[in-house]
Design a protein that fits this description.
The complex is a heterotrimer of chains A (368), B (305) and C (248).
Chain A lengths: L1 H16 L1 H23 L5 E7 L4 H12 L3 E7 L3 H8 L5 E5 L3 H8 L1 E9 L3 H23 L7 E9 L10 H28 L1 H6 L5 H29 L9 H25 L3 H19 L11 H7 L3 H13 L9 H21 L6
Parallel strand pairs in A: 1-2, 1-3, 4-5
Antiparallel strand pairs in A: 3-4
Helix pairs in contact in A: 1-9, 2-7, 2-9, 7-9, 7-10, 7-11, 7-13, 9-10, 10-13, 10-14, 13-14
Chain B lengths: L1 E12 L4 E12 L3 E5 L6 H8 L7 E6 L2 E2 L4 H7 E4 L11 H11 L8 H11 L12 H13 L5 E4 L8 H16 L3 E6 L10 E6 L2 E6 L1 H7 L4 E5 L3 H10 L3 E7 L2 E6 L4 H4 L1 H7 L6 E5 L3 H11 L1
Parallel strand pairs in B: 3-8, 3-9, 6-7, 7-8
Antiparallel strand pairs in B: 1-2, 1-4, 4-5, 9-10, 11-13, 11-14, 12-13
Helix pairs in contact in B: 3-5, 4-5
Chain C lengths: L5 E12 L2 E12 L3 E6 L5 H8 L7 E6 L2 E2 L4 H7 E5 L10 H11 L4 H14 L15 H12 L6 E5 L7 H16 L3 E5 L3 H4 L4 E6 L2 E6 L1 H7 L5 H9 L7
Helix pairs in contact in C: 3-4, 3-5, 5-6
The chains are: A alpha/beta (368), B alpha/beta (305), C alpha/beta (248).
């Protein structure tokens, strides 16, 4: 036990004295969270929208005017027919189109019911979602005004649809994505690099020629990183809930437990890499190309998996980040419980055991 | 009693294309200060790594303190101290932190074995808060020795501890080794500096993965008699060229302010040397018969091999 | 052979890092064609002084010129007129002997034709016809050192700086290396060399010994031995270096 703590203390010395790794360990998650968070949510200001007014009556003209006067939107195009929408999106001229169906005013006054459609360009799903929210607010204000105090059963129905990314679920999807990436980066890369550093600097040579069990060298090395990764998970969640105002859904205990499982997965990958290579450079290269790139491409965070060709979708199954991303977004964004993530959890457990077994088998108790 | 036994050890790298050790055999006695002397790349580090259980030989057997280097590697790791050729401590940890850490790794404390390292440690203690990476060569070497000694090993393996270290620090280092030897620790040291041979009880000369000779320094010197002369004149570089051109010369090398000339045993080889040099225009010529030192002998053995 | 032309002059050359004075007001001259031994214990300030003279570090105060160029202002010109070889970095291990020679020659602005001629000439002189196309990494250390030295003087610099060139090589190669140094001085190159082998100090025309950042002694090996009343350079060195107070 004394040995164990000696190692942990040493590892903290290494990390604390190396500004570069400190920045990566603590700065990177913060930076990524803030960058994604603010870059995505603050973008909606005077966004170009189009109006397709098929009734062209008093109410619709009034409403279109309100959109134009809002600080979020400016109406730059009046469209004639629905077929023009796709063209305008493709040319990046518009980001959202508001459609008033024919006989809008008539429907309100006679049927006490009318519809408005929003179509958003969801190539950037988060922005698009936010814009729909703002637009909805404008309509609600208007509705409240014309209703006054009366509680008459008449209402405007809103229907919004997303082009290009119809299944978009939440603006906060990037949080699970950032979490997945950060853990992969720190758990696998930092661990493997720091173990390989011992080889490269020759300290492993001395540690091997000592009575401690060689595997201890590696395991004790992984534990400080387990702690550091866990701190990062907490940091990300804290930022998500406080600074970015993410709604608190799902069971936090379950989320943390799943995170620890994934940290184990990444650590065992890190151990595996460190057993296979001899220089920090190669360890870093393998981590970046072999782990981080697939993590970006195949987790479903940047590119929706269901839009990928079948072979790619098949490949994505062997990428652990895909499963963790799915677990986290199910818990965090959808607010669902363990019964919805047990399958993914089982797969991650299996992968972790697999990596660990190979890592242990490949572990060298000598120099070659 | 033999503490280290090496029998017909052969080691190759890169699938057998690079030979590091070629059928090497010798023993080191208990309590001995044994020197393995040879240039970089001769095979010294490979041999040390085999003895410290870090590498497995292609063939042959070796044991340390009675334990086989392959089967009983765990036992060996408990009783040996090892200082690799490259400085291998944590550069971002201070002297104190390194020492405490390695003491813990070896299951002991600095206090427990302080007596053993005291003499070396007091020299670096004033700087104990300084990071190891900021120490000079001599201090790093002392710290590394402290770390290798901290668990009171039975056998100490020091791989080129004095390479790149200035003569003063080297001398101090050997004095420390002498005192460790008095405590009964068997010490095996490798070095490229021939002059350190005289500080060892016995030495093995190694070159190109083969052992050239093993004996006490005196034994090696007396076995390898040569017809050797120290020659100097006013124009030393010209003299070297002329001596090499002299028909009876076997070899001639610069040795400090003299050239060491090995002549064949012909009757006239010495007699006609002085006239030859005078005819070549040398002045203030001095020719003195000398007995070869370890470097002369190493050169001869290299040429014979 | 020694002319009166000086290729290095320093006057009160000083370099401080914070409150630590690594090189403390050193003053000396090196004459053209000389082999100048630059000795000192680890940490005495040799490396710092050498870096200043090679134009890699700017001194804190004092003056120095190398090959006629000022170390403050003309360090780029200095780099063009010197050769440098250190034990630590010498050649690219993953290039062949010929590629290394051509690369380093190219750095010093040798034309393609010159490179080819000099390269061939050099390979022949080193007796490495068979190894010319081999990767440097696969050659023994002694050979690497010889190639490294040869490339350092390929562009006929006025002066070549050698930082512990013979560390760890076998006794024969060490001497062959010094043969090459003598040859280089014969062709007019000045040699500035550091070493831990005291017998090599004897090969130098003059030797300086640094202690705690200052030059404590500077003379021919014979004069130094007389002055310190000992029969070897090792004796001189030990007497001087023992006075060191600096904690390395």
């Amino acid at each position: 036990m004394k040995l164990f703590f000696a190692f942990i203390r040493k590892e903290f010395w290494h990390v604390l004295r190396d500004t570069r790794s400190l920045i990566i360990l603590l700065g990177l998650p913060v930076m990524m969270m803030l960058l994604f968070g603010f870059a995505l949510s603050n973008e909606v200001k005077n966004s170009n929208i189009g109006i397709l007014d098929l009734s062209h009556d008093e109410s619709t003209i009034q409403l279109a005017d309100r959109f134009d006067q809002s600080r979020y939107f400016s109406v730059t195009q009046k469209l004639k027919r629905e077929s023009e929408i796709a063209e305008a999106f493709r040319k990046n001229e518009l980001r959202m189109v508001v459609i008033f169906p024919p006989n809008f005013q008539e429907n309100i006054s006679h049927n006490k019911q009318a519809q408005i459609r929003f179509i958003g360009d969801a190539t950037d799903p988060n922005t698009s979602n936010i814009m729909i929210n703002y637009a909805t607010a404008i309509i609600r204000d208007y509705q409240n005004e014309i209703l006054g105090e009366q509680k008459l059963p008449y209402r405007i129905e809103l229907e919004s649809s997303m082009l290009y990314n119809p299944k978009l679920s939440s603006a906060f999807n990037f949080v699970p994505g950032v979490m997945t990436l950060i853990l992969m980066l720190l758990g696998a890369m930092m661990t493997s690099v720091s173990i390989v550093k011992e080889k490269e600097k020759g300290t492993m040579e001395i540690l091997l020629v000592s009575p401690m069990r060689p595997i201890m060298v590696v395991i004790t090395k992984a534990i400080p990183y387990l702690l550091l990764c866990f701190v990062d998970v907490l940091l990300i969640l804290l930022l998500a809930y406080t600074v970015l105002d993410m709604p608190m859904r799902g069971n936090i205990g379950l989320l943390l437990a799943e995170s620890i499982l994934f940290i184990f997965t990444t650590l065992s990958l890190g151990l595996l890499i460190s057993n296979l290579v001899d220089t920090q450079q190669v360890a870093m290269f393998i981590s970046l190309v072999g782990l981080l790139m697939p993590a970006l491409i195949f987790s479903g965070f940047m590119f929706p998996l269901e839009n990928m060709p079948l072979p790619m979708q098949v490949i994505s199954n062997i990428v652990p980040t895909k499963w963790f991303y799915s677990i986290v977004s199910t818990i965090m964004v959808k607010g669902l419980g363990f019964e919805y993530v047990w399958k993914q959890t089982l797969i991650l457990v299996g992968m972790t055991l697999f990596y660990l077994t190979i890592a242990m088998k490949k572990f060298k108790i000598r120099l070659e | 009693m033999a503490e280290v036994i090496i029998q017909n050890i052969t080691k190759t790298y890169e699938k057998g294309t690079v030979k590091a050790l070629d059928n090497v055999s010798f023993t080191v006695k208990s309590g001995e200060l044994f020197g393995l002397i040879g240039a970089d790349g001769a095979g010294k580090t490979s041999l040390f790594r085999i003895l410290t259980t870090l590498l497995i030989p292609d063939s042959g057997k070796a044991s340390v303190a009675g334990f086989d280097v392959i089967q009983d590697f765990k036992k060996i790791r408990e009783i040996v101290g090892y200082m690799p050729g490259k400085f291998s401590l944590y550069q971002d940890l201070s002297i104190e932190e390194n020492l405490n850490f390695f003491a813990t790794v070896f299951g002991t404390t600095v206090e427990e074995n302080y007596e053993l390292i005291r003499e070396i440690y007091v020299q670096i203690e004033p700087f104990k808060k300084r990071l190891a990476g900021q120490l000079s060569g001599g201090m790093k070497q002392k710290l590394a020795l402290c770390c290798a000694l901290i668990h009171e090993p039975k056998v100490l393996f020091l791989d080129e501890p004095t390479t790149g270290v200035d003569p003063v620090s080297r001398k101090e280092f050997w004095e420390m080794l002498g005192r460790l030897k008095e405590r009964g620790i068997t010490i095996m040291v490798s070095t490229p500096y021939m002059d350190e041979a005289k500080l060892c009880d016995r030495i093995a000369l190694i070159q190109n993965s083969k052992i050239l000779d093993i004996d006490t320094l005196e034994g090696i010197l007396s076995k390898n008699k040569q017809n050797l002369f120290a020659v100097n004149s006013d124009k030393m570089y010209q003299l070297l060229k002329d001596l090499r051109a002299y028909p009876n010369t076997i070899s001639c090398f610069a040795f400090g302010q003299k050239h060491h000339l090995q002549l064949n045993s012909g009757e006239n080889s010495l007699k006609s040397l002085l006239p030859y040099l005078k005819q070549k225009g040398h002045t203030n010529i001095s020719i003195k018969a000398i007995s070869p030192d370890i470097e002369d002998t190493f050169i001869k053995l290299m040429q014979d091999a | 052979m020694l002319s009166q032309e000086t290729v290095i002059t320093t006057h009160n050359l000083t370099k401080s890092f914070g409150d630590f004075t690594a090189v403390n007001a050193i003053t000396f001259e090196v004459k053209a064609g000389e082999i100048f031994g630059f000795l000192g214990a680890n940490g005495a300030g040799k490396t710092t002084a050498m870096r200043i003279l090679c134009g890699l570090l700017s001194p804190t105060s004092g003056e120095a010129t190398v090959a006629g160029f000022d170390v403050y202002k003309e360090n780029e010109s200095i780099k063009k007129h010197i050769g440098y070889m250190s034990q630590k970095f010498s050649l690219f291990e993953d290039l062949t002997v010929r590629e290394n020679i051509e690369f380093f020659g190219g750095i010093y602005g040798l034309s393609r034709k010159e490179l080819k001629e000099k390269g061939n000439d050099l390979i022949q002189r080193l007796g490495m016809g068979k190894e010319a196309e081999k990767l440097v990494g696969s050659l023994p250390l002694g050979w690497k050192q010889k190639i490294s030295f040869s490339t350092a003087i390929l562009h006929q610099p006025k002066i070549v700086f050698l930082d512990e060139p013979t560390g760890g090589v076998d006794p024969i190669t060490r001497r062959q290396f010094w043969d090459m140094i003598y040859e280089a001085t014969d062709s007019g190159i000045t040699v500035f060399v550091t070493t831990h082998y005291m017998d090599e100090a004897e090969y130098c025309n003059r030797v300086s010994i640094m202690v705690d950042g200052s030059i404590s002694a500077l003379d021919t090996p014979n004069n130094l031995k007389h002055q310190f009343d000992t029969d070897s350079m090792e004796g001189v060195f030990l007497k001087l270096a023992r006075q060191a107070k600096r904690g390395e």
